[in-house]
Each structure stands twice: as C-alpha cells, then as structure tokens.
Design brief:
heterodimer, A: about 270 residues, alpha/beta, Rossmann fold, 2 domains, five-stranded parallel β-sheet, elongated, B: about 325 residues, mainly alpha, two-stranded antiparallel ribbon, 13 helices, globular
C-alpha cells in the first residue's frame, strides 16, 4: 500500500504539472496562430542568404546542375537512375573516385522561354555560379509545339517558320549560362527525332539536324561549351530505345546518352 | 460526502497497477526506435541519391520535384493546390535561409508528433480510456464502486480527471522518449533552432504575411500542447463509448474505426464539405503551425482554421461528456 501511495504522488503530481503546462501551451499556441505577431524580428536575426550553399559545399566534390525539360528530368527512365543525368553522375563518381552531386532543376514540359524566365531567379543564378558542370536539354517542346496540328501529322512548314526564333532563345540561354559561370563545363545534349519512322521525307530530321548544327555553332563561341549529339543514337531500331510514350528515351536510351556525355567529360 | 481527491487517487492507482500504461510506454519506445532507425536510413539514402546533405540543394531539388508533379496532367486539381502550397513553403524557407529539416533530437520529436497526432497518439489514449467504465462492468466491481456513499457523477468525474492526467502523462512521456532515443542518433541540440510558423493557407495560396520565426522549443511546446488537446478529446469520446458499450473489444473497434476513417476522410473532405464536422478530420491541429498538409499529398481542407478545429473538437468532447454523465448517473446496474 505504501508503494502505491508513493507511486500515486509521483505520477499524480507529474501528470498534474504536465496538464497545467499543456493547458498553457494550448492557449499560447491558439494565440500565436489566431493573432500572429507581425514578423519584424526575423529580418534582423536571419540575414538574407548570401552564398551559404557555396560555403557549405565541401571542397573536392563536383556539382552537376541539370536544367531544361523532361529529357533532363529523366522522364521515361523507369530504372530509377534519374535519366541520363543520374547515370552520368554514377559513371563520373566511379571514374573520378570522388563525390559528384546532382541538382536537377529540370521541369517536364518546359520550353526555352520557361527556362529563360527561371534563370532570372537569384537562387538559380547562384546555382549556376556554383556548378562545375551544367547539363541541359531545351527546345524539344518548342519545336514539337510549333509543329503540332489537330491531326496526328506534323506541320513541318510551321516549325521551319519558327525555327529562327527558337534558335535565338537557345542562344540566349547558353550565352547567359556561360556568362554566369565561365569556368563550368556546359553540356548541351542535342536533339534526336522520335518520329523518325513516320518522317518519310526526312523533313523533321532535317529541321533537327539544322537545330543541332545551330547549337554546335553557338557552342563554338565558348571554350567550355560542348554539344553532345544524340541524333544517330535514335536512328536505327529506335523502338528499342524509346519509352512507351514514343517520345522520351527509355532507360536504355538514357544509358546511351549518358555514355556519350561521360566520354565527352572524362 | 467523499471528496474527489481520494477517488482520483484510487483510479490512478488502479490504472497504474493494470500495467497498461507500461505497455503503452513500451509501444512508444519500440516505435520511436524503429522510426529513428528509419530516419537515419532515409538521410543516408538522400545522401546517396543526391550526393549531398546540403539542405539548400535538397530543398531546391524538392521544389523541382514538386514543380514536375504540377506538370503531370494526371494529378487532380486539389492535389495540385497542395503542391503549390508546398512549393511556396519550401521557397520561403530558402529565401529566409532557414533549413526546414535540420536533423536533431528536437526536430525528430517535432516531426514525430506531427505524424503521430492523426492516429498513433489518439490510439494510445484510447487504449487507456476504452475500458475505464466497461471494465468495472465486466469484472463486477461496478457494484462495489457504486454502493459506496459516493454520488455517481463523482465516480465518473474522478475517472475523467484521471483520464486527463494520464493523457498528459502519455504526451509527456512520449516527448521524453522521443527526445532521448532520437537524440542518440541525431544529437540532443536544436532547441533554439529557428523554425518558421504563421503560414496561412487560403485556397491554393500560402500567405506568408504573418509568417514569423520562432525558436524550435516554442514550436515544439505549442505542437505538443495542440496534440495533447486532440488526444484528450479522443479520450472523452472513448470514455463515452466505454459508458455505452460494455465490451472492451467492441469499444476498441468503434474507436479504431472512427480514427482510421478520419485518416481516410481527410483526403476526401475537399470534395465533401460537411465531413469537416467530424472530430477525426480535425485532430491534426498542429498543421496550422507549419501549414504542412495533414497527410502528405492530401489537399488542404478548405474552411478549416484553428478556431474551427478547436471548436469542433471541444464540441465533440462536451457532447460526449454530457451523454456519458447522463447515461452513467441514470442507468440501472443490473448484473
């Protein structure tokens, strides 16, 4: 009986104090949420971020920044490696025997103007400055949307008409990246023709080759910029390397792109 | 006339002697250990996948991931709203340079409560509360209890107060266990780490006008207190079930069904408006602190605010208590 009394006193008083505490906390929380204080203190105590990420990045590690559209995002890669970017990272880590970080900021469906707008953000510009390698794909959505018609066939004349405008946007993007970080290696992954089977007159292919040539010409203006061609990878037996949407590469397709990128970088 | 004090003492000793409280503590210890281990694995995995633990980079990646989800046409509009809110929240953290997830014992405890309030913590309270009255029936002690010169309402009141005390004890012990165990893995610091609170969600907008930064211990304290209230409300409802239903198993089943249905209903309440008057939809009051969404990927519930949720919970508790007391004081004890 004695131990029961001791137990009761200990548990009871602890519980009583806790109850009071939580009651107070509940009122405090309700007050803080319902009548929030204006936030004046946080400006002083938390300075605007300067370049904390750069400082906290360990030396001797490589950072890959991936920008662009679904091809860079890795759409269609069901292996979970993260598209060609993730595969490149794995290869490079093995090759260089040091950690390689990937910041993949690519967004499905982005066109050149979306990326241009995105690159206006200070956080993104900071990322570009920090990156050792910038990889990007852009333009595929611009081209396919320019040529999309109500029917399943593609309006190549319309693409041809828009081509100079889109090429100019690509020029702006690549120039801007190079200006933000002249030291990083910039890898533009060229386009392939996913519709090559339907493209009997080679109209699409000729547009894409022209596009890839233009990209290469832009890259020639910068010592650290390269264009990795992928067109030939998806010419023979294309079904084997395309995802079921018949537009994006599958894991095998990304493997081949990654192999090219690694060759160019090593 | 006997005062309430010895009655409460009696009830407390009964509960402690039943060892059920000990079982609850063991459950918490096991679960927290498992979660702590899982959390360390997640951190390791993130490190492996992204190659970095730099929070600014992982947060950037999270934003990109979420932006990609937005472009997926198969995602319903409500979920898109949730994703947009999440993106704003992450972006705000980046702008203010405050890591939303610095691993530490305190952060773990904070996250644990955030996740446990929907189901786990109420369940612990239910385990204690569900046979407070019905067990007296099944063991026959109800007759001994009620033949004492004590008014019936006092008997029930003592049980209610004991329940309140034990709810506090469960929350307190869970906090301590969480902190002690996760601290082993993540370190015991982090009390003064800045945390952002004060977000308001209206539709698909996250309003940051009132967002302010507080120390993590304040945040944790508020969160725990909100959890405590939700748990006590569930306790009151369990007490009513215990008065109405003689069988402990049946009572447990009822409460389990109610709590689990809440987890499911939260996902549907965006389309079914009046579901927000159910208590189980309102349990996760701590989400108003963080503007995080009740369960990952579920849409923000329109029209849910902290005063609303607290009122709904309080109303449920009050009605349960009224029913409990009126039934308990009037019912004939037959067997």
């Amino acid at each position: 009986m004695k131990s029961s009394i001791v137990l009761w006193r200990a548990a009871g008083s602890l519980a009583f104090v806790a109850t009071l505490l939580f009651m107070f906390g509940l009122i405090y929380a309700a007050q803080d949420i319902i009548y929030p204080k204006p936030s004046d203190a946080n400006a002083a105590s938390n300075p605007v971020p300067t370049n904390s990420a750069a400082e906290s990045l360990p030396k001797g590690e490589t950072m890959i920044l991936a920008l662009g559209d679904s091809l860079t995002r890795g759409t269609g890669d069901l292996s979970g490696d993260g598209g060609y970017v993730g595969k490149v990272r794995t290869h490079l880590e093995e090759l260089w025997k040091k950690p390689v970080n990937v910041v993949n900021q690519a967004v499905n469906g982005w066109r050149a103007d979306s990326l241009l707008q995105f690159m206006e953000e200070p956080d993104v510009q900071k990322l570009i400055r920090q990156a050792d390698i910038v990889m990007l794909t852009i333009g595929a959505n611009d081209l396919s949307q320019a040529g999309s018609t109500n029917q399943s066939d593609i309006n190549y004349a319309e693409i041809n008409k828009n081509l100079p405008v889109i090429e100019e946007k690509l020029n702006q993007i690549l120039t801007k990246i190079a200006a933000l970080n002249p030291n990083s290696k910039i890898v533009y992954v060229g386009l392939y023709n996913p519709y090559i089977k339907k493209d009997r007159n080679q109209e699409g292919s000729s547009i894409l080759q022209q596009w890839n040539l233009k990209a290469a010409q832009i890259a020639d203006g910068f010592p650290n910029m390269i264009v990795v061609p992928t067109f030939d990878l998806f010419q023979f037996d294309i079904q084997k390397y395309l995802y079921t949407d018949e537009f994006h590469p599958n894991s095998l397709g990304y493997d081949r792109i990654a192999a090219r990128v690694v060759q160019a970088l090593e | 006339m006997i005062s309430l004090y010895p009655l409460i003492q009696n009830e407390t000793i009964k509960l402690l002697k039943k060892r059920r409280f000990l079982v609850i503590l063991v459950i918490v210890v096991v679960l927290v250990s498992v979660f702590t281990y899982a959390q360390t694995r997640i951190a390791e995995n993130t490190r492996k996948q992204l190659g970095t633990t730099d929070w600014r980079i992982t947060t950037q990646n999270q934003i990109a991931d979420n932006t990609n989800k937005l472009s997926n046409i198969r995602i319903p509009d409500e979920a898109k709203r949730a994703i947009k809110v999440e993106i704003t929240r992450l972006q705000y953290a980046l702008d203010k340079n405050i890591n939303p997830q610095t691993p530490s014992g305190v952060t773990f405890t904070r996250d644990f409560f955030g996740n446990a309030i929907g189901l786990f913590l109420p369940l612990l309270v239910v385990i204690l509360a569900i046979d407070l009255v019905s067990a007296e029936h099944s063991t026959g002690t109800i007759k001994i209890l009620l033949t004492r010169p004590v008014r019936r309402w006092k008997v029930l009141m003592s049980k209610l107060i004991t329940l309140l005390l034990f709810t506090s004890l469960i929350i307190l012990m869970t906090t301590l266990i969480c902190y002690a165990i996760s601290g082993l893995a993540f370190g015991y610091s982090g009390w003064s780490m800045p945390v952002i609170t004060g977000f308001q969600v209206t539709g698909d907008q996250l309003i940051t006008a009132n967002a302010h930064v507080i120390e993590q211990w304040r945040y944790l304290f508020m969160e725990i207190s909100l959890c405590w209230f939700s748990c006590f409300v569930v306790g009151c409802i369990s007490l009513m079930v215990s008065v109405l239903v003689r069988s402990t198993a049946a009572g447990m089943g009822i409460m389990l069904a109610a709590l689990i249905s809440g987890v499911i209903l939260v996902n549907m309440v965006a389309s079914w408006d009046s579901a927000k008057y159910f208590f189980m939809v309102n349990l996760q009051t701590n989400t108003f602190l963080s503007a995080a969404l009740p369960s990952a990927g579920s849409p923000p519930v329109p029209g849910l605010t902290l005063p609303f949720s607290l009122s709904v919970l309080a109303a449920w508790a009050l009605i349960s208590l009224v029913i409990s007391f009126s039934v308990f004081t009037k019912r004939d004890i037959l067997n």
